[in-house]
């Protein structure tokens, strides 16, 4: 039986190993998530040097090892140089890569692979004012593929349809959002849920301490944005507002920051691990360059 095999993979993590090698974490279409040594990749003129960079897509030839496989050959198919030239885009890409690592297994991962590549392409080419929106949609699509995306159109408890009202004027429309319940919830059900909450079990209490409150309220504009994330693509006008959001005059950037934080807390709770890259998100997107 051959000890070599081929795979198409994208590099998600790399760390030094020994004097000249790199230990790679790669998401492949055919074999899912794997760890492999890139021998000599840290040498100045190594053929694997550039091919072992972050977010590089390679056609690989690998050799099976006792504990770690070895990269024998790599032919680059695609890379994302625009991400490495912009801290906010790079951080957003690393954020999505962390979510993918939470979801991926050692089974074939073609759909997850294609999804990540598509969203990295969007991050690389998006205008500065829409990068955060692209990150939010990428987060939602990864959650959806994992089967844990928040319910955004029906109350999680009563299954009552929920449609945001953008025309309430002096009486702002609101709805509840419960991370533990799995999405939006009417204010009536939210109050009932909070009033009837008994002693939390140890695991739920631990995650609440780590990830913060499990319930909140959101406005009509936030829910309208959230409900559009399931679309294949977001379509923006020249002023970088969503074409179908109509009637929302608040700064889109501020709304997207709140939407991203909501999805971040939701993802961290359901994957039960922090997103380390998120520590830079708030500071990166506070820059006026990324405001709409």
TrEMBL record:
Pfam families registered for this protein in UniProt? RecO_C (PF02565), RecO_N (PF11967)
Q: Where is the DNA replication/recombination mediator RecO N-terminal domain?
A: 1-80
DNA repair as UniProt keyword: yes
Q: Does the keyword DNA damage apply?
A: yes
Q: Which gene encodes it?
A: recO
**What Gene3D superfamilies does this protein map onto?**
Nucleic acid-binding proteins, Recombination protein O, C-terminal domain
**Chain's role:** Involved in DNA repair and RecF pathway recombination.
Q: Which family does it belong to?
A: Belongs to the RecO family.
Q: What keywords were assigned to this record?
A: DNA damage, DNA recombination, DNA repair
Task: Please report the name of this protein according to its UniProt entry.
Answer: DNA repair protein RecO
Its lineage reads: Bacteria, Bacillati, Cyanobacteriota, Cyanophyceae, Nodosilineales
């Amino acid at each position: 039986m051959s000890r070599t095999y081929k795979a198409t993979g994208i590099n998600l993590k790399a760390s030094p190993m020994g004097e000249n090698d790199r230990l790679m974490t790669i998401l492949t279409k055919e074999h899912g998530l794997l760890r492999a040594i890139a021998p000599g990749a840290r040498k100045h003129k190594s053929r694997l040097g550039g091919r072992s960079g972050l977010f590089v897509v390679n056609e690989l030839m690998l050799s099976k090892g006792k504990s770690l496989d070895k990269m024998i050959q790599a032919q680059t198919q695609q890379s994302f140089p625009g991400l490495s030239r912009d801290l906010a885009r790079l951080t957003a890409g690393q954020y999505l890569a962390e979510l993918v690592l939470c979801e991926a297994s050692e089974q074939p991962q073609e759909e997850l692979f294609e999804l990540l590549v598509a969203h990295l392409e969007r991050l690389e080419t998006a205008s500065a004012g829409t990068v955060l929106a692209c990150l939010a949609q990428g987060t939602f699509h990864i959650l959806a593929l994992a089967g844990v995306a928040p319910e955004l159109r029906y109350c999680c408890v009563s299954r009552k349809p929920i449609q945001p009202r953008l025309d309430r004027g002096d009486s702002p429309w609101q709805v509840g959002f419960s991370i533990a319940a799995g999405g939006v919830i009417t204010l009536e059900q939210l109050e009932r849920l909070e009033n009837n909450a008994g002693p939390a079990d140890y695991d739920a209490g631990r995650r609440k301490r780590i990830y913060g409150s499990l319930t909140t309220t959101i406005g009509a504009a936030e829910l309208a944005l959230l409900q559009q994330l399931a679309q294949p693509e977001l379509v923006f006008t020249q002023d970088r507002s969503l074409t179908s959001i109509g009637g929302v005059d608040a700064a889109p950037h501020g709304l997207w920051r709140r939407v991203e934080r909501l999805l971040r807390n939701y993802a961290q709770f359901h994957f039960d691990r922090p997103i380390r890259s998120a520590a830079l998100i708030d500071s990166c997107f506070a820059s006026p360059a990324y405001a709409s």
